[in-house]
Design brief:
Number of helices: 9
Distance between the termini: 90 Å
CATH architecture of the domain at 6-114: 3-Layer(aba) Sandwich
Helix content: 40-55%
CATH class of the domain at 6-114: Alpha Beta
Number of strands: 5
Strand content: 5-15%
Largest sheet: 3 strands, antiparallel
Strand order of the largest sheet: 2-1-3
Shape: elongated
Amino acid sequence: MSSTTIYLYIKTHKTTGLKYFGKTIKSDYEKYRGSGTYWKNHIAKHGYNVSTEIVFQSTNIDEVGEFALAFSRDNDIVESKEWANLAIENGRNDIIPKGRKRSEKTKKKMSESAKGKIFSEEHKKNISKAKRGRKLPPKTIEHRKKISENNKRLHKEKRIGMHGKNHSDKTKLLMSQNNAMNNPEHRKKISVANKGRKPSAATIRKIREYMKKHTCCCIDCGLQVSTHGLNSHRKGKRCLPTNVHPLKMDQPH
């Protein structure tokens, strides 16, 4: 038997009425805020205006576990909207059952708790610092295939993509302003950086091979252009009628 007292508590938010059942070994359990994801998001959003009630305490971990499991199941703390718990509390260090798939109700709880949450600048900086330098392992062919199939399914279900929707004029303006290539200073930096640089023979060969596979004949002027840049070309100055074009090529239209 351990000499450490384990406390099982119920925290109730005084404003919203949401409850959270948890366990701590800290004697100042009033100050301990709880560790549940949904619960922490909730108090971050609504403030820590909370009352704490101790429902059981013991130094016997088996007694604590027995009470915690019975309380969790009797009050249906995972599925009930009155409780913020996303998993059954067993009174120990681990949360059970491990590997259990979350129900749709639990997923909805998690989704609602994350809505409207605003991260502070310091928090964003800490996330950025933690991820800096991290390299993800290369995706296997099987992994890439799964991603592709999932994206196709989401497109078919119209859960991603525009699907007939159009950006507003305001959104288009913001997208244009945020495009670095529309910034003359940025383009100048690229130009300066590229001056004097000569592509290697291997790079030139790759470009030629790519262009052979991805070129087409413009129906307006007869020039060979990249398939990716055809629309831009037809709007540009180089696309002139074949009878006046200085670079007219003798190719069938």
